What we know:
By secondary structure, this protein is α/β, with parallel strands linked by helices. It has five helices and five strands; from the N terminus they run βαβαβαβαβα.
Amino acid sequence: MERIAVFPGSFDPFTVGHEAIVRRALNMFDKVVIAIGYNSAKSGFFSLEKRIKWIETVFADESKVTVDSYTGLTVDYCKEINAQYLLRGLRTAADFEYERAIAQVNKQMNNDIESVFLLTSPEHTPVNSTIVRDVIRHGGDASMFLPKGLNISVDDIE
Ligand code: ADP
């Protein structure tokens, strides 16, 4: 059976930290589905369309990666696409506490889905979408926090 992992998140925007987690996960799974959790009441900073397009650009040469969006519970989405694994990245103890609760609740809701955590590499520990958004919003150069080839600027803000 194909090993399919869902990497869920808001990816608002997708950063070098996210990219590194996906690239490492490719050695472990047959397919990685990067899934943008979408809440119509709370749209992101960048449009869903742009976020999807940016991630597709990053993995254009990687046939094992697909990009999708979903609404509702992440475990229901995993079941819908026959994914057995939920991939998340861990930076800090705060991430761990947050992720622990989500993973344990998810496990109670669907015992067939395993959460798998990859620890971030040291250079990516401080990278988070909120800070990258702030850099972009204020016209700073965010390129060092973004995957190669992605140019996101203040003009991309909705
Ligand atoms: P969410 O809104 O669900 O937290 P994010 O887009 O912020 O979604 O993050 C998606 C996943 O990527 C989370 O598991 C998060 O911990 C992880 N992540 C975010 N930034 C990094 C990073 N710099 N290094 C490793 N993992 C990261």
